[in-house]
Each structure stands twice: as C-alpha cells, then as structure tokens.
Amino acid sequence: MTEEIKHRSANPDMGFERQDMGPGTVYAFLIGLAVAGVLIAVFLWGAYHSLDAYARRHQPKQSPIAPPAPADTRTVSPGEVTSIFPQPRLETNERLEINDFRLREEQALNTYGWVDQQAGIARIPIERAMQLIAQRGLPTTPKAGVAPTSTVGVVAEAAQRADTSNAPKGKAKQ
C-alpha cells in the first residue's frame, strides 16, 4: 500500500480527469433524443396519410356491369370473405381456430372411427394401438436373400406335384 501512495505522489503530473460530463449535457441529449423521436413519428404519420390519400384517389373504377360495391374496395365485410375469396384464407381468430383444430386432432387420436369405410380402413385410439403392439409385437421382414412365401409359389408347387402328364402310367409325382 505504501508503494501505491509513493507511486502516485512520485509523479504529480499524472492523474485522472477530474471533470466528467455535467448533468446539463445529459439532459440536453435526452431532450434532443425525445424531440427527434417525436419528429420522426410526425413525419411517418404524415407520409402514411399522404400515401393513403394518393391510393384512395387512384383506385381503379368499378366495372359498370359488376354489382355495386362500396366506394372503398380495400375494406371487406366478414360475409363477403366467405363468398368472394377462395381457399385458403387468412385466419380471422387464430386462438379459436387452433383450439378447434387441436380438438379435432385429439378426437381423431383418441376415438374409434372410419378412415375409409368402403375400403375397410378404420382408426383406433392411440392407447389401444400401443397395447396391441405390446401384445403382438411389430411385424418383421424376411432376411435378406430369402424370398417371402407367396400364394403364387404355393399354387405352382401344388400344380407341379399334381401334374401326372409326364409320369409313368399309374404313378403320380410325390
């Protein structure tokens, strides 16, 4: 500690800046920043309204044979959305629509029902499917190089055994 004191007192010309920025300078900067923010907001508001007025003035004219439409064609009532615009449309209420979607998905995962009744394809609850897999196991595939048994091969083999055309008379192939 004494060395530190000696070091400081040994060179009196060396030191630190004793005067920092005053509070007036900081306040002036903050006020300037607020004024700049307000000016930018006013400029953007004016630009938006002038561009909006320009777009309103330059809207295309309605066809004389089309049914009368409102003067502002940029606004659409909810009833017109379903009749005019094709699918897919933007969501109008995301929370309700996702809740309905999730409810339908949960019902499909947890209930019995037909996927395609004419083809005989049904769905079962996922819990029941897991129980069946645990009881029966997963289907296996044959080893590489081994041909799976097929009805065509069985029928051809039976037909060959039953063929007596080349056998001596009175004896059938065994």
What does this structure look like?
This protein has a two-stranded antiparallel sheet. With 174 residues, it is mainly α. The protein has helices spanning 2-10, 23-57, 78-84, 94-110, 126-136, 151-162; strands at 113-116, 121-123. The N and C termini lie far apart (113 Å). The mean pLDDT is 79.
SSE layout and pairing:
Elements: H1 2-10, H2 23-57, H3 78-84, H4 94-110, E1 113-116, E2 121-123, H5 126-136, H6 151-162
Antiparallel strand pairs: 1-2
- Largest sheet, strands/sense/barrel: 2 strands, antiparallel
Strand line-up in the sheet with most strands = 1-2
What is the overall silhouette?
elongated
Give the percentage of residues in beta strands.
Answer: under 5%
The chain-level structural class is mainly alpha
Distance N to C terminus = 113 Å
Order of helices and strands: HHHHEEHH
**Overall radius of gyration:** 43 Å
Low-confidence stretches: none
Tally of DSSP β-strands = 2
The helix content is: 40-55%
Q: Helical segment tally?
A: 6
Q: Give the overall average pLDDT.
A: 79
